Protein: Sugar kinase
Organism: Streptomyces fuscichromogenes
Amino acid sequence: MKRTSRDIRTANRYEVLRQIIAQSPTSRQTLAAATGLSVATVATLVGELLDLRMITEVGFEDSAGGRPRGLVAVNASGGALIGVDMAETYVRVELFDLGLNVLARAVEDMRPGESRPEQAVGQVAAAVGAVVAQAGIEGARVLGVGVSVPGQVDRATGIAEYAPNWDWHDVPLLDLLAEYIAYPLHLDNPLRASAVAELWFGAARGREDAVVVNLGTGVGAGLVLGGGLYRGVSNSAGEWGHTTLVLDGRLCHCGNHGCVETYVGAPGIMLNLRELGPRSPLLHPEDQTATIDALALGVAAGDPVAVKVVRDTARYLGAGIADLVNVYNPEVVVLSSWVAKKLGAPLLDEVREAVRRHALRRPFAATEIVLSPVPTDPVCLGAATFALEGALQAVGQRSPKRTTPARSRTAPPS
Amino acid sequence: MKRTSRDIRTANRYEVLRQIIAQSPTSRQTLAAATGLSVATVATLVGELLDLRMITEVGFEDSAGGRPRGLVAVNASGGALIGVDMAETYVRVELFDLGLNVLARAVEDMRPGESRPEQAVGQVAAAVGAVVAQAGIEGARVLGVGVSVPGQVDRATGIAEYAPNWDWHDVPLLDLLAEYIAYPLHLDNPLRASAVAELWFGAARGREDAVVVNLGTGVGAGLVLGGGLYRGVSNSAGEWGHTTLVLDGRLCHCGNHGCVETYVGAPGIMLNLRELGPRSPLLHPEDQTATIDALALGVAAGDPVAVKVVRDTARYLGAGIADLVNVYNPEVVVLSSWVAKKLGAPLLDEVREAVRRHALRRPFAATEIVLSPVPTDPVCLGAATFALEGALQAVGQRSPKRTTPARSRTAPPS
Ligand SMILES: [Zn+2]
Ligand SMILES: [Zn+2]
C-alpha cells in the first residue's frame, strides 16, 4: 500500500505527456478522453508541462457549437535527453529532443581488454560530450542522462551490482560518471529500458499488463504490470532468461542448467545451429552478429538448415514465452532487441505457433504477440525516457533526486 | 494508469482494517505509524469503519503527557462472512465473525458422479444454510459469501469458465447460486483465495511483492504485487503449474508436456514415488491424501524411500520456485495448501536448498521462503476475505456491485 496520491499524480503526468508526444497538436478535451482523466485534472497537468516548457500552446481548433479549444504540442526544443546503452561489446549514446527524435549519435566499440569501470566511464563521458557538441545545443538544456548497463543494478545508489560479462561487482557507476557529467544521471538495465520504451512509445502504450521479451546476447523480460514498470523488491525482476526450460539441460553462466537463455540467446542459437550442422557455412564461430545475419538471409532464401534452426529456436522460445503467458496473463508480448529485429517476421510466426502449442488456451487467446514497433535502438530510447521521467518526477520537488556534485565537468580529463 | 484515487482509498481502507484485525485494541496514532498514512486519513477511514459497525470504540489509553487516545477494536459480532471452497473432491463452507474466527463449518464430499453444476450448487446452498443455522446468527448479518472454484473464472460475470476436473465450461455459477443464496456473492479461484488469505492474515501481510505457491492436487502461484492481488488481463495470472520445467517431459492434462504440476502436484508426487519404488507400501494408488500422509510419516521415521521422494519432489519444486524468484524478485514465497501443510518442515528445508541451487544469487538473497502460517483452511479464509473486501468496496456506493435477485431463497428447494 505504498502507492501514494503523489505517485498517482506522477503517473498521470507521464500519461498526459505520453499522449501529447504520440499526437501533437491536441486539446485538453482530447487528452481527457484518451486518458480517462477529468478535463480539470488534465488542465492542471498541462499547466505544469507548460511551466516546464516541455509543451507549448499552438493555437485553437473549432469545437462544434462551443468556443474554440486551445491546442498544445510537444516543445521539441524545450530540452534534450540523452540515452546511454552500455552493451557487452559497444557503447551507444543518443541525444533526443523532447519529441524523442534522435538529434545526435555516437557509437564506440568496447574492446574486450578495456572494460574496466574507469575505461568504460571515460568512453561514456567522451561520447556524451560528443553528442552534445554534435547536436549544437547548449549544455544547460540537457534535462538528464539515462544509463543502461547489463545485469543487476541498484537505481537508488547508482551502483552496478553485477555485470557478468565484464566481471563488475558493486561498481559505483553513477558516482564515477558524475565526475565527468554535469547532468542528472539515472541508472537502470536494458530489460527495463526496453520495457519503458515500449510503454511510452511502442506496443505497450496504453496497456495495463505487457511483457517485453529482450532477445540479444542475453535474454530477459521487462514487465509492465498495472500500467507501470514492475521492478520487484530489489530491482531484479524479469530474469526470465535464467528460468529453467530443460531440467538438467545446457550449463548456463549463472550456474543453473537448462536456462532459457542457453537456448535462445545469440550464443544459444549458435549452439542450436552447431548441433544441427556442425560445418554449416551459416556459422561464424566467433561472431554472433554475423551468424544471426546469415540465418536471417538463409531463411529468406529458403535454406533448409536456416529454416530448421529458426524453427528449433522458436520452439524453445515458444515454450518459454508460454510460461510468461500462463503466469502473467498479459495483454501483449513484445519481442525486442537485435536478434528479434534481425530474424523478424519468420521468427515471430514460428514463435506464435509454438506459444499456442504450449500455453493454456484462454490466456493465449487474451494475448497478442508482436515485434517491437520502435524504429530506433529501444535501449537508448528507454534510457532517455528514464531521464524524462526523472525530470517529470522532480516537478514540485526542490531539486531532482540525484544532483551532480559541484566539481563536475562535462568532458573527460583527456 | 487505470488506478484511481478511489482505488487508493479502498486499498487504504483494507489496510487499516487489516491492521485493526491483526492487533486490537489500537489507536489511530498507532494505525498511522503502522500504515504510513497520516493520522487525519486514518481518522477518516476509522470513522467509515465505525459507521459500518465493523469496529467499535473500546475506551482510551494514556499517552505520555498528551490527552488520552481513543482505542478501537474489531466488532467481531458486527457481521458474518462465509467462505466456500469448492474443491475437486469436497465442498467446504466456513462462517466467520469479523475477526475472521471460524464460528461454524460444513464439509461435504463431492462424489465423482455428482459434479454437475446443479448438483454442486445444491450442495453449496445446503452447506451455506447449515452454517448460518449452526452459528445461530440472523441471516441479515451475513455481509457476503465468497466462493472459490478451481480453474479459470470470470469474477465480473460470476462465470466458472473452465474447471478441468469437472469438465465445466462457462457455467454461470453465481447466477445459479443466487437462486438459493440471498447474500452478496463473490467468485474467484483457490490460487487467488489463498493469496488474499496470506495478504490479510498470513506471511504476505505488509509485503509489497509476494508469491503464494499452492501445492495440492493442482498447483499454481497466487501473486501479490505492489501490495495487492495481481490478476492479469483476464483474471488467469498465476498458472505457474503449467509452466514448462522439463521440455518434452510428462504429459499434462493441459496438453503441454513437462509442466511443473506433473512433477509436484499430488498425483505427480505419487508418480515420483512409483518411479522410485513401484511396490512401495507408501503408495496408495487411488488415494492422494493417504499417500501424502504416508510420505510425511515415512520422512519422520527416516524411511529412505520417503526421504528420497521428498528430496526429488523438492528438487523439481526448487527449480520451479527459482523461476518465480528470478522473474518476480519477491520479498517472500509462501508454501500453502494441503500438500505443503502435510509435508511441512522437511519439504521446506529441501525446497530452500534446491531454490538456492537454481536461482540467481541476489534475488535469492532478497527472498524469504516460508510455510503458510495460516492455521485454518486458507481457501475458505481467502474466499471469506473476498466477501469482506466486497463489503468494504461498497462503502459510499449505492449498492454492492452484485446484488441478489428478489426471488432468492436461503435454502435449496428439496
Ligand atoms: Zn542461467
Ligand atoms: Zn500443464
Notes: Confidence is low (pLDDT under 50) at residues 398-414 of chain A. The first helix of chain A runs from residue 5 to 22. Residues 202 and 373 of chain A are 6 Å apart (CA to CA).
